[in-house]
Amino acid sequence: MNIDSVQGIMGRVSAENHLNISKLFDQHFALSVPKSRYIPVETTSDLFLLQSDLYTLTDGTLTRNTARENPSDPSIELEPLFENVDDFKQRFKSIPSVVALDSLDVTGDVWFGTDITLKGKVSIHARLGMKIVIPDGTVLEDK
């Protein structure tokens, strides 16, 4: 469905007609998608987990990495500097490995290199006016 076409049709229909989308099309249907097919992504912290090695997409289904022993997802708290998706992408050359991570808390001006592994409880706090760059290949465990 072309959203521009739908917007064009809706724009031509007057508000007085009180039409909804189903009245504009002869054939319409709804899809039910099981939760195993997706993870809700509301924040960049959710995006971080989805893009990590914790999940893979196999035949249209999200599969959890069997190497992770903890049944719950790690807690991810990213500073407001990471809220914008473009800023988030710039701050990560690649998403770190989080299979053995329990929690991550990042505040301040922090940048991540490639092939980083996070394990246990990791907190990274850059002071105001300070920039922290996590070098490529770094392993941070309970730090």
From TrEMBL:
Keywords: Nucleotidyltransferase, Transferase. SUPFAM superfamilies: Trimeric LpxA-like enzymes (SSF51161). Its EC number is 2.7.7.9. One of its GO terms (biological process) is UDP-alpha-D-glucose metabolic process. It is an enzyme of class 2 (transferase). The keyword Kinase does not apply. InterPro entries: Trimer_LpxA-like_sf, UDPGP_fam, UDPGP_trans. Signal peptide: none annotated. GO terms for molecular function: UTP:glucose-1-phosphate uridylyltransferase activity. It comes from the Eukaryota. It catalyses: alpha-D-glucose 1-phosphate + UTP + H(+) = UDP-alpha-D-glucose + diphosphate. Belongs to the UDPGP type 1 family. This is UTP--glucose-1-phosphate uridylyltransferase.
